[in-house]
Amino acid sequence: MTEKKLLEELDQLERELGRPLQIDQPALLHEFHDDQEHEGTLGMKVLSIVSAFIATGFFIGFTFLIGLNSTLAFAVMGTIMLGAGCVFCRRDLLGILGEAFGVALMVCGFPLFLAGMSDVTNTETGMALAALALAVLILVITENKIITFLATVTMGGCMLFLAHDDYGRFGAHLYVGFFAIALTLWVQSEALLLKSSGLLARRYDGVRTGLILALLIGAGYLSDFRFWMDLPRLPNWYASVALVPLLFWLVYDLLKRFNHSQGRVGTEMPATAKATGPVLSPLQRLYLAGLLALLIPTIFAPALSATLLCLLLAWKAGYRTGTALAVIALIYFISRYYYDMNLSLLTKSIILSTSGGLFLAAWALLRKKISSHETTAPGPGGR
């Protein structure tokens, strides 16, 4: 985001509210430029992650090449790298270059430390628990967004393994349901989390991205169980017990907020609406009914509903990276769902064509409504 885009969004918010915003604009712009200076672009973050994993692979390969196989040596090297990484990841120390080096050190030190603990945690479950505990510790002591993102994803991977190890295939459904609830609460409580604690505020973005990816990983696990092991599928609706109500509630909340903003920029709200909150219009109730009809087929395809949940939450938060991840995952899961349907090619084509037409019609209708809403919104100060 650029400074111009930020100011445009503030102006748009003023128009929707119908009154001037009470903000310290110089302080806001100063913090914005400070974040831009220290965080870098998305491409730089991706390159930092990729280079960190490449460096880890080369370093571990080098240790095996020289014949270093002592668990004590691995534990010592891992501890040193993790400690040095925590120091280098401080944004006020060495800037972006130092943070990139710190990310590489921590990514490399993490598996080395776990390898050093292999004598203590000599089972797969013990190793997963050790990795989970270490990821939680790193998340608490490190503020770097890349590290908090990787720590959250690592926690998700460990929890998925433990859930499947303890509860079998049903554990994956528990995992998806848990992370769907966690992600929804995390995004819906954004304002509360950002102002309640500096520790949470500085880790919010990284954890949010990590929760999205962790949920999508679980959804991918459910999308094609036979890819992982040659076993019959478990009935695939268990995770939908959490996913479908969350999706329906989220859309209902968005419609209420949209209706409330319309009441402020348009005509006077009825007295009953002022007393009980925004009332949905008949058209919005029709939207909810249509959404429920669209969600019913996803009950047996929780990967689709999980991805839709990520997409809506990312859109609500204005988070483009999360939106891109959700769109890519949605394309894959729809293709996976299409491939797995036990129907003829003609029937599949008819279903896809009909679904595409319905979605395009819904897009056109929503676009028309949103455009008319933006046109009727007054300028700053209610002008």
- Rg over C-alpha atoms, rounded to the nearest angstrom: 24 Å
Strand count? 0
Helix-strand pattern: HHHHHHHHHHHHHHHH
Distance between the ends: 27 Å
Biggest pleated-sheet summary: none
Percent of residues in β-strands: under 5%
Note the total helix count.
16
Roughly what percent helix?
over 70%
The pLDDT mean sits at: 78
Show unreliable segments: 225-231, 263-276, 377-383
- The secondary-structure class comes to mainly alpha
Give the overall shape.
Answer: globular
Please write out the topology.
Elements: H1 3-17, H2 25-39, H3 42-65, H4 71-88, H5 91-116, H6 124-141, H7 145-167, H8 169-188, H9 190-196, H10 198-223, H11 240-265, H12 271-276, H13 282-295, H14 302-317, H15 320-340, H16 345-376
Model description:
It is a single chain. It contains 16 helices and no strands. The chain is an all-alpha fold and 383 residues long. It is globular. The model is unreliable at 225-231, 263-276 and 377-383 (pLDDT under 50). Keywords: Membrane, Transmembrane, Transmembrane helix. Residues 44-368 form the DUF4401 domain. The chain crosses the membrane at residues 46-66, 72-89, 96-117, 123-141, 170-194, 206-223, 235-255, 286-315, 321-339, 346-366. It comes from Neolewinella aurantiaca.
